[in-house]
Amino acid sequence: MNSANIAITGKPDTIIPLNDKERLAALFRYELLDTPPEAFFDRITRLASRLLKAPSAFVSLVDKDRVWYKSNYSTLEVSCVDREDSLCSLTIINGVDVTVFEDTHLVPGLLTSPYVSAPGGIRFYAGAPLITRDNYNIGTVCVIDSEPRSVQEEEKEILKDLANLVVEQIELRSLARKATRKHDELYTNLAHNIAEPLKEQQVLLGEALKSPERTNVIRKAHATVNVLQENLQTMLQESLQEEELVMHPQQIAISEIARSVAVEFEPLANAKQQELFFTVASRRELFVDPDLIREALRNLVSTSIKFTPKGSSIGLDIYESDGIYKVEVSSDASVLTKQDLRKVFFKYAILTGKTTGNEDASGMELPRAKSIIELHQGRIWAEPTGKESGKKFVVAFNVE
């Protein structure tokens, strides 16, 4: 029996590929990490286990420091393992169709993994990489056994086919998600730029029918039609554009980025007689693009200032709770309604609450912040604070 049917004959000095930043960006755009179990992926692992006659099978995603299981068909009661301990980390750097270890105990370096060296640990492993349309390896479909064994060419082809099915599914999900967001943006855009001017047009035409001085009224109506045409043309152009955010991540404390944002916006808050409080309970460093995160936090703080009355307080707070790193931007007296909170992340959303200092609000700041946070594998939402008219924006990153 061969010790390994792969290009790698031992554990390499590093399991991090040179293009790992770009690879992680490709992984994050699918928004799959830390999502609940789903029937499709569980069917894939059941099929892999049955067809290759292996007791355990996984759909794995290789994150920055961990390998997370979208589907776990095994007795292993964990959702992820350290990246350095996972054989899937070798699969994504191997450069072959299927990585196979017929007996892990015969491969130099693999016994350093506790999942290999433990009694009843991994003796046999076979994994096919999940290769995206732009040629990044983001994870695997793999099977394992506690006994060494060989693998047939037909079984390798099965793993490759299952991996291709997984990639096709997540690509379709990504397209569907983009289409849904485009629909939501189009709906709010139509309401903002077409429906409202149409109402004004109806009023003007009604006045024209009653007024003896119809010429001026008709001239106004004609101007409104021109505005409608311009708005519609702009919307059509925007619908054909798909902005691609590009990350340049590094290890950095978000608290320091937030501190600079608080200092920047303190004069603006003071001008509205608002108090801007900044508190830090965690200085953990995260792998993020500092410029994009700064932009997202600026948009959240700026929006809070705009929709908070004079004499009120705004908080920018950073802390950790139950393995979640959170950034909260809160207002003790926001004019945003509960209905507003449901749509503030849609482009051009028409909000019930109005800015409290006649500031301009384009409707683009919060959708942009949402895109940035989700690109970083984070979550963002708006909710009441539980104190009278208080509202807050919450950004959350999993850190465990």
UniProtKB/TrEMBL annotation:
Domain of life where this protein originates: Bacteria
Gene3D superfamilies reported for this sequence: 3.30.450.40, Histidine kinase-like ATPase, C-terminal domain
Domain Histidine kinase residues, every copy: 189-400
Pfam families: GAF, HATPase_c
Protein name per UniProt: GAF domain-containing protein
Taxonomic source organism: Pontibacter diazotrophicus
